[in-house]
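chain below, 143 aa
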Amino acid sequence: MLEVKATSKYLRTSAQKAGLVLELIRGKKASDALSILRFTKKSVARDVEKTLRSAIANAVNVADKNQKRRLDEDDLVVSAAYADQGPTQKRVRPAPMGRAYQVLRRTTHVTVCVAEQEEGAKASAAPKSSGRGRARQPKQESK
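prediction:
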């Protein structure tokens, strides 16, 4: 099974904000993840989309060179997507009465891993639950 990753470093956003967008695409097909990112209204979504496109291109290139076979975008799944905290730039901002406030400009490293979808998973593409909380039980009528 082929698994390839791409990393974008020193993005000017916090790891927490990038993690919100990465949570949307984790576990999805690569083509579905691209369309989700296209219509996400967060500024970091553009950077995540570039990283995902790079990971897809890496996977196609590795499959073509090393394994001598063609790989399509529809065969790939986002296996992992995470944001690590990068270095924080510290700046000084003037404050009242001659003091100074410290401004923290956070950066993040975004990593997106894509893997080849298994043959068994292609046939059974059942939607998965988000894993948060309990599954809702239908109400039973009392007599």
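The first strand starts at residue 3 and ends at 11. The radius of gyration is 20 Å.
thats it, cya
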